[in-house]
Design brief:
The protein is mainly alpha-helical. Helix content is 79%, strand content 0%. It has 10 helices and no strands. Helix 2 packs across helix 5, helix 5 runs antiparallel to helix 10 and helix 7 (169-178) packs parallel to helix 10 (211-236). The chain is flat.
């Protein structure tokens, strides 16, 4: 394909992805209330476990904030629901540059990518109350915790996205082995250095920076690194 044909292909793939995200956002607009209750649950857990005064409702101080929060949550849900389509379009765009034996991994690539992203986001949601408790302990009992939706949801969603992207780590490693960029032997020889790099990178990219969030991200990534080596050794080598 020429450069113009590649750009045309990219445009068509992007249009399909944008339409999918838009449709997901429309659906997410009607799922706003149950999803918001789910996202606010870590804040409620913090209040209940520590007998903190006040309700667990978020405090709105801007007349336009309620509308903007609903739009943001809808867009987040749109990206989440459209992720299989977006990833499939990404795969279809890079498929012409792959060998036939590499193209057969399209369905496992998309399915595992979505599953791992959801697992990462769910883990972030589960560990978020501990992160809130870690920061709340610094203020003391004299401070009442009243969070605004934009600040609270911004931190929570960013944490979930970073966890989800971090959980794509084994997909990248397996794909590099499929493409012949690295081998499982090379990855195995880098294990000690990789563990150190994983902890350092996680300490930098975690939005909250607390030790609970750091360990919750770093330990699975180390296990994923080992799992990618096992896949390369026992699965890809046979195929």
């Amino acid at each position: 394909m020429s450069l113009t044909e590649h750009l045309g292909e990219l445009r068509s793939r992007l249009m399909i992805a944008v339409v999918a995200v838009t449709a997901g956002a429309v659906v997410g607009f009607f799922l706003y209330h149950p999803v918001l209750r789910l996202l606010v649950d870590p804040y409620c857990q913090l209040k209940a476990q520590n007998d903190l005064p006040g309700t667990c409702q978020l405090v709105v101080t801007d007349p336009l904030e309620s509308m903007s929060i609903r739009i943001k949550v809808s867009v987040y849900l749109g990206f989440l629901m459209a992720s299989p389509v977006v990833l499939f379009q990404l795969w279809r765009f890079i498929t012409p540059g792959l060998y036939p034996r590499e193209r057969r991994y399209a369905v496992p690539f998309v399915a595992s990518s979505v599953l791992l992203f959801l697992l990462g986001a769910a883990l972030a949601l589960v560990t978020f109350p501990k992160a809130l408790e870690f920061f709340a302990a610094f203020g003391g009992e004299e401070l009442q915790l009243l969070y605004s939706p934009s600040k609270y949801l911004g931190l929570l969603v960013l944490t979930m996205v970073i966890f989800g992207l971090a959980f794509e780590f084994p997909i990248v490693l397996v794909f590099l082995q499929v493409a012949g960029v690295v081998t499982w032997q090379r990855l195995q020889s880098w294990t000690r250095q990789a563990i150190v790099i994983i902890f350092v990178v996680d300490a930098v990219i975690t939005p909250s920076g607390d030790p609970v969030t750091l360990m919750a991200m770093a330990i699975p990534m180390v296990l994923f690194y080992v799992a990618a080596i096992m896949v390369g050794r026992f699965v890809l080598r046979r195929s």
